[in-house]
Fold these 2 entries.
Entry 1:
Amino acid sequence: MDSMNILRAFPLLSSISQTDLTALSSLLQARHFSQGENIITEGEDSDDMYLLIKGTVDIIKKTVFGDTFVVATIDDSMHSVFGEMALLDHDKRSSTVNARTDCETLCIDRVSFDRFCQEHPEGGVKLLRFIGVNLVRNIRKENENLKMVYQALIEEIEQS
Amino acid sequence: MDSMNILRAFPLLSSISQTDLTALSSLLQARHFSQGENIITEGEDSDDMYLLIKGTVDIIKKTVFGDTFVVATIDDSMHSVFGEMALLDHDKRSSTVNARTDCETLCIDRVSFDRFCQEHPEGGVKLLRFIGVNLVRNIRKENENLKMVYQALIEEIEQS
């Protein structure tokens, strides 16, 4: 499978034009991570977005008590991207992404992403719309999680 | 203040070109809501995004127990938009937006928004990027809320 077909398999990129995909691919940098390595570390300043080409990663969060827990595991069959939040708002990383196996990724930094959106706005609209829908899904999931934990809290208070 | 200046005061629209703003403004529909009326109702299928031109609204959520609580109050001085989640993913409304006072809004439906992004991709990139950053902020806030409620739950369990 050539590199264009690899990219086309990502839902993020499935609908952008060939010209835009070629331009975007020239901005993507290949990065390898060894098993156990952090690709992204919670709290750090960095703004790359990653496409997971090969391998499996754990998305890990810290509780207020400093414990960590795995919130999701992503493998390459899912053609997922991660790191899109800091790509957009340039704030600190909200979770750690740890390589559960050796991983091959393609990444794009914020400056290159913004340049692509400016120079290829039709492609930019498609990327930003896709990312936006994913963010909305995350908010809806967080809402549900919040409701569940809140319910557990109320029940615990009522029992005590 | 003419209508273009009213629109320009919205951070969402502050950086789009005059041509794009004119095109967008022709897609916006003025809608009035009386005090006490729901502009958006949690759980319903609708996909308009609203610009709050005049008045004050409460954003209201339901708990799993069916109680409601105000999560935020927005007034026209904030030049805020709401309803952008369903605009993007076309899923059910995640909160109720209730007119605390008589309100004047401008709204755009999903089909018109998508058409604008397609026909004016430079403007579309700017709108989607702005909405994306807002969504990221909401996720970060939800993360903090989840941590706080989780902490309260753990402390309650340990005390009981």
Note: The mean pLDDT of chain A is 93.
Entry 2:
Amino acid sequence: MSSLRVVVWGENVHEHKNPKVGAIYPKGMHAAIAEGIRERIPGAIVATATLQEPEHGLSEERLAKTDVLTWWGHLAHDQVSDAVADRVQRRVLEGMGLIVLHSAHYSKVFRRLMGTTCSLHWREADDKERLWVCNPGHPIASGLGPQFELPAEEMYGEPFLVPPPEEQVFISWFEGGEVFRSGCTWRRGNGRIFYFRPGHETYPTYHNVTVRQVIANAVRWAAPQGHWPEVGKSPNARVHPEPIRPKP
Amino acid sequence: MSSLRVVVWGENVHEHKNPKVGAIYPKGMHAAIAEGIRERIPGAIVATATLQEPEHGLSEERLAKTDVLTWWGHLAHDQVSDAVADRVQRRVLEGMGLIVLHSAHYSKVFRRLMGTTCSLHWREADDKERLWVCNPGHPIASGLGPQFELPAEEMYGEPFLVPPPEEQVFISWFEGGEVFRSGCTWRRGNGRIFYFRPGHETYPTYHNVTVRQVIANAVRWAAPQGHWPEVGKSPNARVHPEPIRPKP
Amino acid sequence: MSSLRVVVWGENVHEHKNPKVGAIYPKGMHAAIAEGIRERIPGAIVATATLQEPEHGLSEERLAKTDVLTWWGHLAHDQVSDAVADRVQRRVLEGMGLIVLHSAHYSKVFRRLMGTTCSLHWREADDKERLWVCNPGHPIASGLGPQFELPAEEMYGEPFLVPPPEEQVFISWFEGGEVFRSGCTWRRGNGRIFYFRPGHETYPTYHNVTVRQVIANAVRWAAPQGHWPEVGKSPNARVHPEPIRPKP
Amino acid sequence: MSSLRVVVWGENVHEHKNPKVGAIYPKGMHAAIAEGIRERIPGAIVATATLQEPEHGLSEERLAKTDVLTWWGHLAHDQVSDAVADRVQRRVLEGMGLIVLHSAHYSKVFRRLMGTTCSLHWREADDKERLWVCNPGHPIASGLGPQFELPAEEMYGEPFLVPPPEEQVFISWFEGGEVFRSGCTWRRGNGRIFYFRPGHETYPTYHNVTVRQVIANAVRWAAPQGHWPEVGKSPNARVHPEPIRPKP
């Protein structure tokens, strides 16, 4: 089997604006996320791409060679070009896996694939978050116990305006009294999509070993199961050459 | 429009064994549930049925005239006859609505319709429960705010082994640190099913005005939208009399 | 109960370009569709809107007072402004029903709500189409037999690249040998969506009594069940004023 | 990776009663199905089991070591013991894959997992069947073209009374004018389920190379992705030892 090719996309803005974020992620959040995947998927080819690169680092050629894309963004969703958002959407429909992280619930890519606002409630107050596993046998929960905790995170609360998830992998409990569907899967076309809630920029969440385990599990789970290259074509079908014989 | 015909089914065992339960529900839990529906759906014909009646109060004739059935059971799931469980299941497939309450997650009727164990975690420790609305526009959440609280309830925790709900109406937060998908809908055949978590027998939950509002909303929502009387038939189809002409 | 307010949207281009279409639909396809709904839903307020009107006839004010919108388009999907497409999408999420007809599978509105290409195969060869009812108890199939036929229609064939339908109401059989999921439902936010395949402009499909019955049934089915006005807001949540007491 | 362990279950009744069936499948239908899987999945350990064996060949020990089970039955669904049906259901929930073939739509195992009647229409008239691929990128359609044909088969027609499939892989077109959802997937607990329509006993369907390809693809697809051994337990949860600190 050929190597799994992963691209970790990072908006890469907070890291340079907010010293607190820069201190937690000196090489960028994307570098920490990529490191966690490399550690856990031996043989995977894990690269990064950022908003600031030409075509945001996501050229047609590169996406064509990408099996799974992870996406973190927050401040600059609108700076992602429509052309690149369209390109990512089409590649997901063809079969590329997509892992959507935290505030990327509001990314162009995720909103286009969901068709909804993807809105939610939020609070920054160092809430303890406890993530419960809803299907202990799910590959994305592999190696986890019944729940795991993050000592402090931004809170996200329901209602989360997405289409009904096909699988509920995690639901979060927050110290301040809220709940959130924090691990959800969907399929669109031939691609698998996983939304994973944790990862506010001011916390060291992407250094957490369990969070890294979940992301690596999700990357493996989202690896393409097949390919559908003509996903956007609407061909004119000829009449089948063999005439259909009527039933007597 | 003709009146909505509702049957509230109660196991009616705890009420006679446990003085605490008898004190909260002197006429039985089913009587309190029925009262709440009557208050909120003027014109509805709301009757009760219990385990102890012949055919558990659910004869073929009676079910045929029932639009929505609510079900509470706990200690005596096994005493419900297979014949009655089969009958209820078939009526749901035909179009009767079914509201499954609290410990009825383990009822024969619900387990047969779901095809799974319907297992979960639980704890009796007077946990505060906060139920969050996941879709504020859903008819079952009509008239509610973003969340509502029950001061003390039994805790139910994930994983809840059911097929993926079609709609997530409520998710519960528990004071002890757990979460639960406490309001879920499914459709089976032509029938609508709503599972609603609250209602442990030792708490006055079915006297709570918001709980009563949710149950009445759910009864209205689950009213039959159509009828499919031949739901279990596998007829032999004749060849269509008009011969199909082949395409030239 | 107040009257159901329906807007029938028509692209209104073929009717003026192609004499064959103009002969079948002298007042426009939208007029025929509206007439069919008026006939079957007494008391409904059924109006039309077309591409050529200011804001395509779908101002903010008008959409706010619309319960169900039907949409037919083909040649001019790109001429629908992004602002109006966004507006319709948001109203569906709030609770407005949407009936998507035939070639509107490629409309901006439907593609945005689905998140997929909505592509398919097609052929114009006067195929006989037979539509089978997959759930005889579904409100959209009310009054129909097991199947109904259209003597000649454009063929649409699988694969149809949409998210998995929540309900399969119809599947079409075509004389030339193809199949298609021709009646599908989805919910997005609080809105109900029904895609219905028949309706190529060169056939008198919207004069067919069964097709009219299906569309009227669908309009009734898609009527708003509730309202979610803040569907696109992501509010900052205050900490709940009442402190959470830890479990002993 | 350890070898995939497959058990092909056959009712094994028609083969001994009907000379026509015995001539097509001299070693039994199960032997032909097993042969097709062995040819296409090198290294898989493929065994058979039949109704007539003790515990129908499906002891607790054997099922515990089975990754994917295929099931064909028709005449003797009622002779399958409830204990074995329960056991298979529980193993599917834990993670075992299940491939349900043709008339096994009426098997105890499938009906319990679906919760519905699984009824349909049928006709034995040597109909040509054309199966269309609804998702060309799906692993179960790997290696197939847009459609494939069986020259003569029993017809199955809609309505097919099952819960909404999570993925529609195939839809069949029949020469006599019917359609059927002939390739459907569901997940229950941690197990994957695939229903595949073709395979009437009087036709050499399980010798067809494309049918064999689909079954082998499905077996690979249904291989367990994880394990959930405590699938039927409802444990009493202790209060989490670390007290929850209230939000200030």
Note: The CA atoms of residues 15 and 23 of chain C lie 8 Å apart.
